[in-house]
């Protein structure tokens, strides 16, 4: 019988709770303004309150939940258009960051960090490159994606830009780590993630070569594709999950 370290078991449980709660919010099973009561959802999801609390905090970072002054969380209100607008703004700001970094010239350390993120993404997606019918580990990709964007923007050295990004990315699903994927991955997102990885590789080349205008344009196109992909994935998720009787009962 295989042995699983308790730490890994807890991490897997947290990931499962995050995915299930995200599904409920994105599908509309949990309505905007609905309060998440720990005791109720702990029983509903069949988990203890510790992984539930960690999952709720993570979904707050994604912008799907907001923390209440009187403790607890509730579902934030948002529309697909609001998400799209925020992603467009992120594209402009991150495009500026890419241009500034390319103009100034990235340090050897920054280039190594960006290269490491690109290489990790390439390795993660290698099976999907070989076989388009392979699903991807969306959560692992999201962390790599976030790290790539954070390194790039931090290295641009503009504090006002970082402040504007932080404010803008509070919109649900607007940030580079925000996902609109169901708990069970599908093939729908595979080509989207493969293209995003290719964008990262192109951006790294442009920054390395100090091609400032190209780097800015690549980042803005990258954000445009992210906006359209999120719209498709969110529509697909809502359509699929709203048809499931279990989630329909949850929304009652």
How would you describe what is shown here?
Helix 1 packs across helix 3 and helix 5 runs antiparallel to helix 7. Helix content is 69%, strand content 3%. The chain has helices at 6-27, 38-45, 49-61, 80-104, 108-124, 126-130, 138-155, 159-168, 190-208, 212-242, 245-250; strands spanning 35-36, 65-67, 73-75. The chain is globular. With 252 residues, it is mainly α. Strands 1-3-2 form a three-stranded antiparallel β-sheet.
The overall pLDDT average reads 85
- Using the CA coordinates, give the radius of gyration: 19 Å
Low-confidence regions: 245-252
The shape is globular
Task: Summarize it.
The chain has 252 residues and is mainly α.
What brief labels describe this structure?
252 residues, mainly alpha, three-stranded antiparallel sheet, 11 helices, globular, disordered C terminus
Question: How are the secondary structure elements laid out?
Answer:
Layout: H1 6-27, E1 35-36, H2 38-45, H3 49-61, E2 65-67, E3 73-75, H4 80-104, H5 108-124, H6 126-130, H7 138-155, H8 159-168, H9 190-208, H10 212-242, H11 245-250
Antiparallel strand pairs: 1-3, 2-3
Helix pairs in contact: 1-3, 1-10, 4-7, 4-8, 4-9, 4-10, 5-7, 5-9, 9-10
């Amino acid at each position: 019988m295989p042995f699983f370290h308790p730490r890994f078991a807890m991490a897997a449980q947290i990931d499962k709770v995050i995915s299930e709660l995200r599904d409920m919010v994105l599908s509309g099973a949990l309505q905007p303004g609905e309060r998440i009561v720990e005791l109720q959802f702990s029983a509903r999801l069949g988990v203890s309150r510790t992984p539930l609390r960690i999952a709720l905090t993570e979904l707050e970072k994604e912008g799907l939940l907001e923390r209440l002054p009187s403790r607890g969380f509730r579902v934030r209100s948002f529309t697909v258009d609001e998400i799209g607008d925020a992603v467009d703004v992120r594209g402009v700001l991150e495009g500026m960051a890419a241009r500034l970094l390319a103009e100034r010239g990235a340090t050897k350390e920054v280039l190594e960090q960006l290269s490491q993120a690109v290489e990790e993404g390439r390795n993660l997606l290698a099976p999907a490159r070989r076989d388009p019918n392979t699903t991807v580990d969306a959560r692992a990709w999201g962390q790599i994606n976030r790290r790539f964007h954070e390194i790039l923007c931090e290295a641009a050295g503009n504090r006002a830009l970082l402040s504007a990004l932080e404010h803008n990315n509070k919109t649900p699903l607007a940030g580079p780590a925000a996902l609109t994927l169901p708990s069970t991955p599908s093939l729908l997102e595979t080509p989207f993630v493969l293209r995003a990885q290719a964008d990262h590789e192109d951006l790294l080349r442009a920054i390395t070569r100090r091609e400032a205008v190209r780097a800015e344009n690549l980042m803005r196109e990258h954000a445009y594709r992210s906006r359209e992909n999120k719209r498709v994935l969110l529509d697909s998720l809502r359509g699929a999950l709203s048809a499931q009787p279990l989630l329909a009962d949850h929304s009652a």
